[in-house]
Records
---
Amino acid sequence: MKKQIFFLSSMLFSLLLGLSFAGDFRNRVSSFKSDYSNLADIETEIKFGRDLAARILGNYHILENDKINYYINLIGKAVSLHGRRAEIRYYFAVLDTNEINAFAVPGGYVFITKGLLKEIENEAQLAAVLGHEIAHIESRHVIKELKIRGDKNSAASGLAALIGGSTGSFKGAFTQMLDNAADILFKRGYLIKDEIEADRLGILMASVAGYDPSALKILLNKVKHFESGSKAQASDHPFYNVRIDEINNTLKANGLWGLTSALVKERYHENINL
Amino acid sequence: MQKKAVLLFILIFIPSYSQAFDLYVNSIKATIYHDPSIGSKKITVLSKGIKIQGLKLEGYWYKVVHNGVAGWVYKFMVKKTPPIDSNNLYAKLRSSFSRGRSLGQSARKRPSAYTTTAAARGLKEKRKRFSSKYLFDYDSLEKMEAIEISPQDAIGFLEEGVSK
């Protein structure tokens, strides 16, 4: 009798344990499928992002200064190499406007304004801003918010079909989707949770690259005063105090609190002379 | 007999779900730390493409094993899939990219070629539906894409600055 009880208990225990792992396994698989990382999703993201980047440049001019644009690309590329999206080619450009802003476009296109460059004091702050924008792309924030998938059988947009499609309805829907994405960048801004995540990841990427981890916090403390003043153009980066609190938490949680690293001030001013 | 059945059941059923999972370094390099903290002791630095065993995820850090040594790696440097070669990907995509202006066209324009055609056909509703609210400029985009920097140049420039 005891043997039978032992046998049944063991079988039940194993079954429950197995089911628990099975559930975890299913969650992992499900999570993997929903991370927009299959090849069709990536191709769609790049094509979509490229057309969206063209809309940024339809509304702003690139600063006519090869030296500054090259320098921005060197720093941006160096930071992006510390992210995990090896398939993405990152491009960076300075927009010729005194607004204080930066844009991240899916597929690897990053823009920073001349106005923001004037406020930045060193290369560590530049790396942190570019890291923040790269993090929006690494985390696919626009793509996930608009549910842009490459899989035409997905419940979302089936954008691969839209891009490949030649009929009017396909192109119309594609244009509408681009306008929605441009609205996020130009008008509404990212969700605050996405901004906070981009801060965290951007700081970690720039820190791993060797830059001072407090650089973004110092810059945000400076530009937050422009939000309601005459220089206010930083509308896509609201809730500065919430962000700064979260940055402090990130620094503490990742062993970065109180650490000081490279600021690279001289080289910044040698290259950025506005 | 029953003990053997139990043992067999446990051996077959449990291990398939409890094993470690593969992770690949997707960043240019990934440091393995002793603790989940950038300030902690560095164990080793791994190159892009190297496979390691993941044990669990805590916050932004994976606990991993490499060559029998356990440590922690920052989540956003590794993936469950090997790095994708961007050269192959972009070679395939390039032919489908929208291009800059051809002769006689304005650099900045609002409607698409489709819209123009639709307008010529008198499809007023469709013209409104297909018109983007935003101007676009592929000439400037191509200028932006023309700046190519190799990973070696970028890392060399970075190290020159941050090591001073």
---
Amino acid sequence: MGADQMVAEIKDVNLSYMMLAQQMLRADEAAAIYRLGISQDVARIVESLTSGQLLKMAASSMLLCRFRFDDRLIMELLASHGKDRTMSQSHAAILMAGQPAEAMA
Amino acid sequence: MRNKSILSEAREIRLATELIKLGARLQILESGTSLSRERLCKLYKEIKGVSPPKGMLPYSTDWFASWQPNIHSSLFIDIHRYLIAYTDVRGIEAIIKSYQLYLEHIAANQLECVLSLTRAWTLVRFIDGHLLQTVPCTKCGGYFLVHTFELYSNHVCGLCNIPSRAGKTRKVTQAAAETRAQLSAA
């Protein structure tokens, strides 16, 4: 994959991510805050972005979303292909629900 | 108490409808809304087609301590706590939201729905009444339900330390035996 193509794909992902996040927040704010793992002030900003602002943000060559599992254990649980996969999914969900939300600095 | 405003009554009926669809018992409806018992009974019959079940709600805190229920209810209460901490939803609304998110998790992972809405509601009341509390597991750091006033300085959760007979209920063993029989017959 060339560098140009990579940047183009990053922009695509950014736009899909921002649009999905906005849609989720508009449909059901509380559930979206849980799913996205963000705090309410971030949610309010994302919700109020205009299409123009959204496009400008998405045009960045950096990814706007990042890994939510800083915790090594969550990573291992989510990636596990062991016998009790469903149980490790539940375990990961419990750990992720216990993590603090991403807040504005 | 008689409701004067039609708009607020409409709101309460919608709330009660949602609760009934999720499987709430009459007692939850009575505490969550200010509609009369008679009207709630009628609404229940209209939605479910049967009279609301009579009798007491499950009141045991020990149910939450056994292995599978503990995992499911810990997940529910962690979602609930997250919503209370980071959003504006409170009270019965918060319970409905967290229960819906819990159901989604169950559906996404094809798990058995262990925690009913009634249990979830009683769980929140147990937490408020300090009968149950959550403590972090010393191995994974996740929050799990335990009885209050017991010693948990070294709590290890049921997922880090899975008991040997966990999940091996009579039903599961039977189902496994049936599939084995089917395979050998084929």
